[in-house]
């Protein structure tokens, strides 16, 4: 590669990400280091090694998610810079996360075999059809993120509820959202009345035996008339078999008992669950 091309590629990485460091540690050091301490070149080397390891897709998710425990939390973390200027935040971040970017980065890494496939997959998860742009980003969890990521995740809420799911009604005002986010940009977009299912917190304990490592859990808040997803994380199992929640929340990524988290947050009405089809999803797509 010509020297000037390498300089340009390094500059684009610096602009697109929230942090960049020089040098690459040994593979032995990377296996022991927290994932959020990696730079781009180190992640590339680590993913190449991981791609050759005899692990199931869910085992990769578990390992990568737990390797990021302690990662600092930062809300409203990512944007489209340098592709667009509406939201000048970077397109990826290895050193920090919020609840959504933590799930997105974990699954993009689990599907990847190197840096390039990680970055491609990350944008496919973040945007409808992988087309980068503020207007195309999966802003609304229920009606955007879940629907546009059906290539990777299946909503298993109704199945897990075994006849006890509840109707979730969400009113989405995209016109007002984009007007606020895009400096007064006006779009004629009618209100969307979106319906899906959720499991009430009082039925959550019955569902625990049917949960898998790596399932995405979404927490539902609201009132009797309208509900929305307020937070998401990953389902794990502790050594004693207890179901845990691994998620990004202030001040840092952590793993804790799922029921304990729900008990502390009485405003939570219920939960939704998505399950990945890692074998069906191609890292090249």
Describe what you observe in this structure:
The structure is a single chain. The chain is an alpha+beta fold. It folds into 2 domains: 141 residues, Putative xylanase like domain (Putative xylanase fold); 128 residues, no CATH class. It is built from 11 helices and 8 strands. Strands 1, 2, 3, 4, 5, 6, 7 and 8 form an 8-stranded antiparallel beta sheet that branches. The chain is globular. The relative contact order is 0.14.
Biggest β-sheet, characterized?
Answer: 8 strands, antiparallel
Low-confidence stretches: 1-12
- What is the CATH first-level class name of the largest domain? Mainly Alpha
Q: DSSP strand (E) fraction?
A: 15-25%
Question: What is this structure's SSE topology?
Answer:
Elements: H1 3-16, H2 27-32, H3 40-51, H4 57-67, H5 99-111, H6 115-126, H7 141-148, E1 153-155, H8 157-161, E2 166-172, H9 174-181, E3 192-200, H10 204-207, E4 216-222, E5 227-237, E6 243-249, E7 252-257, H11 258-264, E8 270-276
Antiparallel strand pairs: 1-8, 2-3, 3-8, 4-5, 4-8, 5-6, 6-7
Helix pairs in contact: 4-5, 5-6
